[in-house]
Amino acid sequence: MENNNLTDQRNALLIFLWNQRKSLIYFTSAAAIISIIVSFLITPLFLSTAIVFPAASSNVSFSEQRNVKAAAMDFGEEEQAEQLVQILSSSRIRDRIVQKYDLMKAYDISKTDPNKYYKLNKAYIEHFTFSRTRYGSIQIDVLDENPKQAAAMANDIVELIDTVKNQMIRERTIPAFQINLRKKQQMEQDRDSILKRLEDLAQIGVLPNDARATLYQALVDAKNPQEKDEIRKKIEINNKFGSVYDGLEYQRNEKIVKIEDFKVSYEQAESDANANFSHKFVVEKAVVADRKEKPKRMIIVLVSTIGGFLFGLFFLLIKERINELKQEAA
Length: 330
Description:
By secondary structure, the chain is an alpha+beta fold. It has 11 helices and 4 strands, in the order ααβααααββααααβα. It has 2 domains: 30-173 and 277-303, 2-Layer Sandwich (Bacterial polysaccharide co-polymerase-like), CATH 3.30.1890.10; 174-274. The chain has helices at 2-19, 21-41, 78-88, 91-101, 103-106, 116-127, 147-203, 209-212, 215-221, 225-274, 297-329; strands at residues 46-54, 128-132, 138-144, 280-284. The chain has a 4-stranded antiparallel beta sheet. α2 runs antiparallel to α11 (297-329) and α4 (91-101) crosses α7 (147-203). The two termini are 31 Å apart.
């Protein structure tokens, strides 16, 4: 019984399609013609793609315990790839590309439009895509009406990776280096001040501790009163200032050790603040596309034609049902 009902429904549908074939052909043809016209009115866009790997390390280490696992020749992992995608998506890169290639004009956005930045950002997202691949690399896709400009923009973005990231790093490392520099200068000034005081004490005859112990023997060995008087004066001066001299010597030695220990930290801060590092490995540079990426006219026409047929079918079915309901009501 159920099979008979299904057969009757199928036959009814086929009869309905046959009876409405002219209308369905009209809907389908209209949709196909309109989609063909629209597809040719859409401005073709060309795709250029660049692929980069993030670098694992962004500095030169002066310490044996720093960045043991991250050498300058190593490829970055998931964390570095995510960071690189964030940098590529940032306004630091977007604003430079927009300004250099005047994308507001290219995307027909008026500078007096109150929503110009919203529209610009939306258009930028539609034309620029940054995504991680399954291999851990970053794929940079750029769409543009001009294939040469698409390739140029993609390659400029690759070059901007180092520029922008180095700028971001300097925003933190330069203040740190300046602090280290001031500390180093202060330590050197303290050392030089101690050396100056030691030199002044030496000028008045104060001797180091080991040499000071020989003065009493020199007094005993003196052969004339004049020589003895000179040695007694030296002994008196050394007894008065000897402890000060010893204390300054100890401070000098401490300062020298601290300056030597601090040198590694200072050199690291100086390197981080002044060096220009490459933060990526360029796997593939963007090249000029020789065929358009969008629109896919065949797909547009096919989808629109099928959509026109289905729309016509549902429209006619609804119309037929309404007519049946009217007849039943009458």
